[in-house]
TrEMBL record, chain A:
This is Rod shape-determining protein MreD. It comes from the Bacteria. The chain crosses the membrane at residues 37-64, 76-106, 118-139, 151-171. The lineage of its organism: Bacteria, Pseudomonadati, Pseudomonadota, Alphaproteobacteria, Acetobacterales. Keywords: Membrane, Transmembrane, Transmembrane helix.
TrEMBL record, chain B:
Residues 126-264 form the Rod shape-determining protein MreC beta-barrel core domain. It comes from Neoroseomonas alkaliterrae. Involved in formation and maintenance of cell shape. The chain crosses the membrane at residues 12-31. This is Cell shape-determining protein MreC. Keywords: Cell shape, Coiled coil, Membrane, Transmembrane, Transmembrane helix. The lineage of its organism: Bacteria, Pseudomonadati, Pseudomonadota, Alphaproteobacteria, Acetobacterales. GO terms for biological process: regulation of cell shape. The keyword Coiled coil applies. One of its GO terms (cellular component) is plasma membrane.
Length: 185, 288
């Protein structure tokens, strides 16, 4: 996809050679999925805290779905959901559905959300996180045919709401860097 | 990269979410249908992730130990205060002990008390149990030139073991306190009552012949008595345990079932020396 040298715009740095540029683009495309998966694996590490895997996954998926939907495609979300189900002991499929529903909601409102302030996005995320946690709990009870306690789901939602600003701060920086890199050449 | 027309690509993009949701339901059904599938997948995943977690464990342990350290430092102050106070108390006790020692010294001098010489002892290795005339006896390997005499007292690192009954040129036999033929004069430490510790071939010798009016109390310490001149006074023997039948027995301090070396003390006593072992026509068949 390298532009021919004779049609290069004036006054800009030379574009990177083809392979490097493609690797760069792929890295930008793959970063959200891989970073989310890595965070989930870190969160699943056996420490004394209650497992915060769901609480870490929700902000990442929501953020990338709203701000960079091209990189957080439904198949990637599907795989992340599978990873979530395998890392936690939830019945297979419940995490996948929760993440996909979260993404669907985020995609539905993304044009509205992108223009809002950080606080409004956070509030919207809190509502979505509680909804997602309750859906997760409902799916688990449905698939296991027994009623697990609601408290862990609510804890996960609260933790997720609390984690969102930290995650969003970091991801916003990265997102801006990516935008700059994309607009530069 | 496969080049697709823009409308087709848009249609695919719009379809992928519903498709994926359908696939999620499919996975749910799959998970319900094959319950072991999830387990197998989880096992594979944890196999793949275990190196990551192993690498993570190091910094986690470091952080945890740092937190422990901080917590320990926080309690250090009150520990220090408690130790200081205890130190003060012990110092007072130390002074008391020194004063009592000095007083004791003075009283001894006034009474013209003859101090006991520190006993000489040799340590010998236990090479065999059983055998010989007695059911509970051990054989000691000694050097060719030794000064072991009959009647010496054998102790292990905890307490009284028995008495030397036979001495050969390179070995010695010790009759253990648990043997049926063993009778040891003892003193109950708190009531100062004399009694006899009689072996039964079992693990705990009986207490016998204690004076009337004295009741051996559970847990009371028993030491040897100097009666009859066979033993020095005050060697630690054991504690009283009352058997389920109500008879007082002695739980020995020494671990007679796992003796490896004993010390043979020469107190220079010659009260009651055991007789020469009677040679039997043939050795008794071993019970075990």
């Amino acid at each position: 996809m390298a532009t021919p040298p004779n049609r290069r715009p004036q006054g800009r740095p030379a574009p990177a050679p083809g392979l490097v540029r493609r690797v760069d683009a792929f890295a930008r495309l793959a970063f959200p999925g891989f970073s989310t998966a890595f965070l989930m694996v870190l969160a699943a590490a056996p420490v004394t805290l209650p497992s915060p895997v769901l609480a870490v996954t929700l902000p990442c998926v929501a953020f990338w779905s709203v701000f960079r939907p091209a990189a957080m495609m439904p198949p990637i979300v599907f795989l992340l959901g599978l990873l979530l189900d395998l890392l936690t002991l939830a019945p297979l499929g419940s995490g996948i559905l929760v993440l996909l529903v979260l993404q669907a909601v985020a995609l539905r409102f993304r044009r509205f959300l992108v223009r809002q302030s950080f606080l409004a996005v956070w509030l919207a995320f809190c509502v979505a996180a509680f909804g997602g946690a309750l859906l997760y709990w409902a799916l688990q009870s449905l698939l296991a045919l027994q009623l697990p306690p609601v408290a862990p789901a609510l804890h996960a939602a609260l933790l997720s709401c609390g984690l969102y600003p930290a995650v969003a701060l970091l991801l916003t920086r990265i997102h801006e860097a990516m935008l700059q890199a994309e607009n530069a050449p | 990269m496969i080049r697709l027309s823009i409308p087709l690509r848009q249609a695919l993009a719009r379809l992928s979410l519903p498709l994926m949701i359908a696939a999620a339901f499919g996975v749910m059904l799959l998970g319900k249908a094959d319950a072991l599938l999830a387990e197998r997948l989880r096992t594979h995943l944890s196999d793949a992730l275990s190196p990551i977690y192993a690498a993570l464990a190091e910094p986690t342990a470091a952080v945890r130990s740092a937190v422990e350290e901080v917590r320990f430092l926080a309690t250090l102050r009150e520990q220090n205060a408690a130790l200081r106070e205890e130190n003060e108390r012990l110092r007072r006790w130390h002074a008391t002990a020194l004063a009592l020692e000095a007083e004791n010294e003075m009283l001894r001098r006034q009474l013209n008390f003859l101090p006991e010489a520190a006993p000489a002892f040799v340590t010998a290795r236990v090479v065999a149990d059983g055998g010989g005339t007695y059911a509970r006896a051990v054989l000691l390997a000694t050097g060719p030139q030794h000064a072991i005499r009959k009647g010496q007292v054998a102790l292990d690192e905890r307490g009284f073991v028995g008495r030397v009954t036979e001495v050969g040129s390179r070995s010695a036999r010790v009759l253990l306190a648990t043997d049926m033929n063993s009778r040891i004069p003892v003193t109950l430490e708190s009531s100062r009552a004399r009694a006899i510790m009689a072996g039964t071939n079992g693990a705990r010798p009986r207490l016998a012949h204690w004076p009337e009016g004295v009741i051996p109390v559970e847990g009371e310490r028993v030491v040897t008595s100097a009666e009859a001149g066979a033993f020095p006074a005050g060697l630690p023997v054991g504690v009283i345990r009352v058997s389920p039948q109500g008879a007082p027995e002695i739980e020995l301090f020494a671990r007679l079932d796992r003796l490896d070396a004993v010390r043979l003390f020469d107190y220079g006593l010659s009260g009651i020396i055991p007789p020469e072992a009677v040679a039997r026509p043939e050795p008794r068949p071993r019970r075990r």
